[in-house]
């Protein structure tokens, strides 16, 4: 029988307590950000262990990341002690592995099976496609692999793929056959890929009733966090395990579904009530994380989405304050944005805020670079979560290796790194010979190569390729005398085929790598000499925050799910970056809604303060582009924001807008950036002669709210922000 309610239940509100104590039968908690879903789940875990007669290993809890699993375990341990250590707690993948380590033999896996990373998967599939004599230029293994993964996300083994599935037509209609062969190969080499970790479990449980009985009998209680981002295979897995007892508690927020590109299916939420009739539905409406201003802003934004289950947030604490308004900064460019953000971080730190409570959340990985540079200049410790720091990324290290060779021909480490990247047919065998010569003669690899090509030490084919590569290196080196570092870098990346290699790569992260390379070329503009830049890089590499040290967090919005910070900076709110162009191009209105959910996730990470910024121009691959403020800015309720430009406050919803004297921020900024509110200073007319801060003199072609189209002297037509333009004469 249940024992007396533990004291920690008292800290919950009545709805939360209901979700915690309704231990028997299906429960679905569907609630907005910061309403305590994760806290409910953790408390429920502790409650079950404290009051129900089960052993810890009879409870299964699923989180979205390993980090979240660690946090949940720590919290639960603090509530009920070491019993929490033995709970089956982890991500779907880690739990799948655990089950397969135990029962894998039944699906043909042998002890010690390996788990393939995406490189291995691709290599395997490529071998199969090669053997099938498919034209790999036309049918890329990477694309084939991602199609197979989508099938696996849906829980489809080869025999289950529907006859009319459009992906089947890939590779001359042979994708399904490739899928079969791929699965066969995996079995032969005793390996599983990530998708298999779940698929094999599904097969195991459906084909072996006694195992299903045993496993589902073991897990008497099942808990799932971030339920909105589960895919179909994961859902089927949960349903199988919970079917016998129905003690399944899922918590989620449809407004935070941001992984549809990885096969997540919001439909799982709707299905839940069908599959588990009589489920208790709990809605938590009190938010305990953020100030009411932040809540109003987030709610106002997400209200623009059509496909919602609909819910409102209100403050959960009587004492919850209005808090400061959301600061929206219009800045000139990325450098100014980084400067302002880091200045503010320092100011907050001086005011007593901890660095660990501050985060910069970006939409795309390359955006971290400028912030990293600035944080390094100011000596502010920082961490990049969910990815390497900018200069530690593979593509940046490769590019830097090319640059090092242009400065320093004897740099053998750099030579070795790029001699066969992209592939030039200079493989291990050649490199071994070069290394041997270099060692014996006590010379650098490049010098060794110069000598070897005059001999017959390597095959003629490799010799020719080596000769061509050496000629490239000499040419780039000579170019370095005349070209500025940025142009030199662009030339090298282009002529070496390095950028092209990533452009052609269809792996999901390849596009991000191309963006990072562009960012690098842009960053080089700030240096007069290549040597200066390389020195900078080596210093940058030495700035890792030490374990346990207070540090600012930098990460993508996707990685920030479920986390919270006192202060959140959301930079780069510009069209094309956020909402991201690709999301709109590929998924249209759906894509826009997912971007908006991502913005909602970003806003609701903050407890007290949010700063949003957008730049008027960005450097893209060494060119300046003018940018338009994100449409999401217009969707924030005006009373929640305070807009400010470099030259002072020029408008806030509450006070109306003030004209600040002088500077580029002065006349044309209107509180709502034109779209939703009246323009108060529309001073431009078609045909008028104007001067733009960076593009110079031109004539106005078109006026659209706060945006102008201008034909500049020289003929370039550009869309610009009216606020960066002054009338002439
Ligand atoms: P997200 O959707 O972002 O994952 P969530 O719904 O999981 O959010 P939690 O992270 O569990 O929300 O809770 C948000 C914050 O509110 C946490 O700091 C948590 O400790 C606090 N909190 C939750 N419930 C209460 C409560 N009843 N009293 C006081 N604080 C609470
Ligand atoms: Mg949560």
Automatic annotation (TrEMBL):
GTP-binding found in the keyword field: no
Membrane-spanning intervals of the chain: none
UniProt: ATP binding residues: 31-38
GO terms of molecular function: 3'-5' DNA helicase activity; ATP binding; ATP hydrolysis activity; DNA binding
Reaction equation(s) it catalyzes: Couples ATP hydrolysis with the unwinding of duplex DNA by translocating in the 3'-5' direction; ATP + H2O = ADP + phosphate + H(+)
GO terms under cellular component: cytosol; DNA helicase complex
SUPFAM superfamilies assigned: P-loop containing nucleoside triphosphate hydrolases
Domain UvrD-like helicase C-terminal: 292-562
Family membership noted in the UniProt record: Belongs to the helicase family. UvrD subfamily.
EC number: 5.6.2.4
Segments forming domain UvrD-like helicase ATP-binding: 10-291
Protein name: DNA 3'-5' helicase
InterPro entries in alphabetical order: DExx_box_DNA_helicase_dom_sf, DNA_helicase_UvrD-like_C, DNA_helicase_UvrD/REP, P-loop_NTPase, UvrD-like_ATP-bd
Keywords carried by this UniProt record: ATP-binding, DNA-binding, Helicase, Hydrolase, Isomerase, Nucleotide-binding
GO biological process, one term: recombinational repair
Pfam families reported in the protein's UniProt record: UvrD-helicase, UvrD_C
């Amino acid at each position: 029988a249940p024992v007396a309610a533990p004291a920690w239940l008292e800290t919950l509100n009545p709805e939360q307590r209901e979700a915690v104590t309704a231990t028997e039968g299906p429960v679905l908690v569907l609630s907005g950000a910061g309403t305590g879903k994760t806290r409910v789940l953790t408390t429920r875990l502790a409650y079950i262990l404290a009051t129900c007669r089960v052993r810890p290993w009879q409870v299964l809890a699923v989180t979205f990341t390993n980090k979240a699993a660690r946090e949940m375990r720590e919290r639960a341990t603090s509530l009920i002690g070491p019993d929490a250590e033995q709970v089956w707690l982890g991500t779907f993948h880690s739990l799948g592995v655990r089950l397969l380590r135990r029962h894998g033999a039944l699906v043909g896996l042998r002890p010690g099976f390996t788990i393939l990373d995406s490189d291995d998967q691709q290599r395997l599939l490529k071998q199969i496609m090669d053997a099938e004599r498919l034209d790999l230029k036309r049918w890329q293994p990477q694309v084939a692999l991602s199609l197979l993964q989508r099938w696996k996300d849906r829980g489809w083994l080869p025999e289950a793929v529907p006859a009319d599935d459009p992906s089947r037509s890939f590779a001359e209609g042979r994708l399904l056959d490739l899928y079969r062969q791929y699965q066969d190969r995996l079995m032969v080499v005793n390996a599983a890929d990530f998708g298999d970790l779940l698929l094999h479990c599904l097969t195991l449980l459906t084909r072996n009733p006694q195992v299903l009985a045993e496993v589902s009998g073991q897990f008497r209680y099942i808990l799932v966090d971030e339920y909105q981002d589960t895919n179909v295979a994961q859902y089927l897995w949960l349903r199988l395990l919970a079917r016998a007892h129905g003690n399944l508690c899922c918590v989620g927020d449809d407004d935070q579904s941001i992984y549809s590109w990885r096969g997540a299916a919001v439909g799982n939420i709707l299905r839940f009530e069908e599959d588990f009739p009589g489920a208790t539905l709990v809605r938590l409406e009190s938010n305990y994380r953020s100030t009411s201003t932040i809540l109003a802003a987030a709610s106002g934004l997400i209200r623009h989405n059509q496909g919602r289950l609909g819910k409102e947030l209100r403050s959960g604490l009587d004492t919850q304050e209005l808090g400061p308004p959301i600061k929206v900064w219009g800045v000139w460019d990325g450098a100014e944005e980084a400067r302002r953000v880091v200045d503010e971080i320092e100011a907050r730190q001086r005011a007593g805020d901890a660095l660990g409570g501050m985060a910069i959340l970006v939409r795309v990985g390359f955006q971290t670079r400028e912030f990293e540079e600035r944080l390094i200049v100011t000596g502010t410790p920082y961490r990049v979560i969910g990815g390497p720091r900018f200069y530690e990324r593979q593509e940046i290290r490769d590019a830097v290796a090319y640059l090092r060779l242009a400065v320093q021909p004897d740099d053998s480490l750099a030579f070795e790194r790029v001699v066969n990247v992209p592939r030039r047919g200079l493989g291990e065998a050649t490199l071994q010979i070069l290394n041997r010569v270099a060692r014996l003669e006590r010379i650098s690899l490049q010098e060794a190569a110069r000598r070897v090509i005059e001999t017959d030490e390597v095959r003629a084919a490799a010799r020719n390729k080596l000769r061509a590569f050496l000629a490239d290196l000499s040419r780039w080196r000579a170019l370095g005398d005349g070209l500025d570092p940025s142009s030199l870098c662009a030339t090298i990346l282009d002529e070496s085929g390095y950028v092209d290699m990533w452009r052609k790569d269809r792996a999901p992260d390849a596009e991000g790598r191309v963006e990072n390379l562009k960012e690098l070329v842009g960053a080089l503009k700030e240096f007069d000499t290549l040597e200066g830049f390389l020195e900078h890089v080596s210093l940058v590499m030495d700035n890792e925050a030490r374990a346990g040290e207070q540090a600012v967090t930098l990460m993508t919005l996707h990685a920030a799910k479920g986390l919270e910070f006192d202060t959140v900076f959301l930079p780069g709110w510009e069209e094309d970056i956020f909402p991201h162009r690709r999301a709109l191009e590929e998924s249209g209105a759906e894509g826009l809604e997912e971007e908006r959910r991502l913005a909602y996730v970003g806003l609701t990470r903050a407890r007290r303060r949010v700063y949003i910024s957008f730049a008027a121009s960005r450097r893209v691959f060494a060119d300046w582009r003018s940018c338009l403020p994100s449409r999401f800015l217009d969707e924030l309720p005006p009373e929640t924001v305070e807009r400010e430009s470099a030259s002072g406050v020029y408008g806030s919803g509450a006070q109306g807008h003030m004209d600040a004297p002088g500077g580029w921020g002065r006349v044309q900024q209107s509180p709502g950036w034109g779209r939703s509110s009246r323009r108060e200073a529309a001073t431009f007319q078609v045909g008028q002669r104007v001067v733009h801060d960076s593009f110079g003199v031109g004539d106005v072609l078109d006026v659209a709210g706060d945006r102008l189209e201008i034909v500049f002297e020289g003929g370039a037509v550009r869309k610009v922000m009216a606020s960066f333009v002054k009338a002439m004469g």
